[in-house]
Amino acid sequence: MSWKWILNGDYGLLNAGLKLLSIHGVSWLTDSRTVLISVVGVAVWGAVGLQAVIIISGIKGISPMLYEAASIEGAGRVSQFFRITLPLITPTLFFVSVTSLIGAMQVFDLIYMMVGTVAIDHVNTVVYLFYQQAFIKNDKGYASSIAVLLFIMILIVTALQFKLQKKWVHYD
Predict the structure, then answer these.
(1) CA distance 36 to 122
(2) What is the pLDDT of residue 16?
(3) Which end of the chain, N or C, is surrounded by fewer C-beta atoms within 10 Å?
(4) CA 136, CA 83: separation in Å to the nearest integer?
(5) pLDDT, tens digit, 9 for 90 and up, residues 94-151
(6) Radius of gyration, CA atoms only, the chain
(7) H-type alpha helices, the chain
């Protein structure tokens, strides 16, 4: 709801800031050219915090002795990052990428709360299509098939990620 207020085209905080800079404001959530950018920006803003905490936890799990040994051997900070830090946090990065992609494919609440039905045609998702068929049009059979299709899509993408992780994730 805060983002809906910030991005409001008439009295939003962002447009008020732009007005101070003598820039004409935009209808962020109703204009077909800016609604997708606005929703994606808010989604990224909301997800980055949790993902950062998970990645920092992964970095904190790396033994300081590895960095000490590398610096004794003459490795610089960049070399330590690419040869110690990055390989050892690949399981964490893999977890974050899988959960983020699953979350992105299931986005509904953010779009429904921010956009409503005003510009929904420009940010329509599979989950919104499911909601529309199940609860607005009351077509439960079609909605069930949409849910099964979404499950299969998530299953395929996740299986592909697990197959590809063998090439870049190091569990040693």
Answers:
(1) 7
(2) 87
(3) C
(4) 54
(5) 999 999 999 999 888 888 888 876 656 677 889 988 988 999 899 999 999 999 999 9
(6) 22
(7) 2-6, 13-20, 35-60, 64-72, 77-80, 86-88, 90-105, 109-114, 126-131, 140-164
